[in-house]
Amino acid sequence: MTPKADIAVVGLAVMGRNLVLNMSDHGYRVVAFNRTQARVDEFLAGEARGRSIVGASTLPAMAALLGRPRRVMLMVKAGAAVDEFIAQLLDVLEPGDIIIDGGNSLFEDTARRTRQVEHHGLLYVGTGVSGGELGARHGPSLMPGGSAAAWPHVKPLLQAIAAKVDGGTPCCDWVGSGGAGHYVKMVHNGIEYGDMQLICEAYQLLKDGLGLDAAQMHEVFRDWNGGELESYLIEITRDILATRDADGQPLLDKVLDAAGQKGTGKWTVISSQDLGTPVTLIAEAVYARFVSAMKAERLRAAGVFAAPAARLRGQRQRWIDDIRRALYAAKIVSYAQGYLLLRAAARHQGWALDYGGIALMWRGGCIIRSAFLGDIKRAFEREPALENLLLDPFFAQALARCTRSWRRVVAAAVSHGLPVPALASALAFFDGLRSARLPANLLQAQRDCFGAHAYERVDRPRGEFFHSSWGGAGEAPG
């Protein structure tokens, strides 16, 4: 008798296929299903041949091949397709069975689906999967949340296929109830947007500000990857800069400068606005992609407005070192903002997030993996209730070392007409945070003057509100 399979994967695009192969590598028997039967047949005859992977032509047939409790992982496009498959699976699965969504679903959808599936007596897991196709194949970062009762049944498998760090610790652990797993993945992706934009700004400063060619920039990023900026994104930037087209010219120079996106960065910014938490760097990274997409308008504007001289004057190596420090300082701010958002969401949703554990989950397998995340994990080990990463002694000292270079780079970029929205917004956030008094007192006075919105006083306890006539000025219309 053929043994029952351990899990089924629905959706055999590149991520789904690679996860199936990863599970097979770790000794799990997997059922592969796709809406298009031809893709299942092709997979079984190709990459899956000779492995403990079986195909199913229908969802009932797939369910019949699984051991109890049945575990079904959806690797389909986020949105309506997930709801469609859940509706079909509820007809073929039974109470106690588990549905896992491994796509980039909006956390609010995951919370809704968890309630829906649990109402039918089944369990639901929404897990972030980060690392792209190579991560899926060889070990991704996994961020599961949803029905807590499902965790013991999926933990061995998910931790087996996850990336490993620090002597075998899996980059996967339970995050929390409802949409917690997909929320953490969303913030991961928002930070990813910020990291990528910061690197792009450093690239433009090196290229247009210092006049370095691709080979020289390759050397710079190679050196940076050996220090405090060591990360997957710096590593692939190094390799991209070394890649040549068929004619021997740098391939990067032939890539159109119009960036795409799939929405997770935008979701992060929307959530931050809902929670009143500033993630200014991530927001600028999202908007920078929007500006890049305005290619036709940018070409017209370039012909209308004369640009300042772009070249930075002074010793080249000093500028390279300053740009590295500015990049590192802004990166610290980006992660600090991301963690502020996680903390705000945890309070709002009632999640007990393990912030050091999240850093560990991001240490390997995912796109933002870096040595830097080990420093974040240690910061939360020192002070689990740390309210802001910038206040940790390690990061505070790092910012103190980098601030002069950071200011020099942003000031030079502005005076030379080189756009650095992420570097500049991070510096503005830092300066705002370190200011004991901001001009928001004038803002509140303005609001009270035209709209009688009231204000608090510095010489009275918080929570007492006052309204003044402000020199007899009347209320403004609207």
Descriptive keywords:
single chain; 19 helices; 8-stranded mixed beta sheet
Q: What is the count of DSSP helices, taking H or I runs of 4+ residues? A: 19
Q: Which percent range fits the helix content?
A: 40-55%
Helices and strands: which structural class?
Answer: alpha/beta
**Largest sheet data:** 8 strands, mixed
End-to-end gap: 77 Å
Summed over residues and divided by their number, the pLDDT gives a mean of 94
Low-confidence stretches: none
> What does the overall shape look like?
globular
Secondary structure tally: strands: 10
Summarize the structure.
The protein has helices at 14-25, 37-45, 59-64, 80-92, 107-119, 132-138, 151-161, 180-209, 214-224, 232-242, 264-275, 280-293, 295-304, 316-349, 355-361, 372-382, 393-415, 421-433, 440-451; strands at residues 7-10, 30-33, 53-55, 71-74, 98-101, 123-130, 141-146, 164-165, 169-170, 176-177. It is an alpha/beta fold and 478 residues long. Strand 8 (164-165) and strand 9 (169-170) form a beta hairpin.
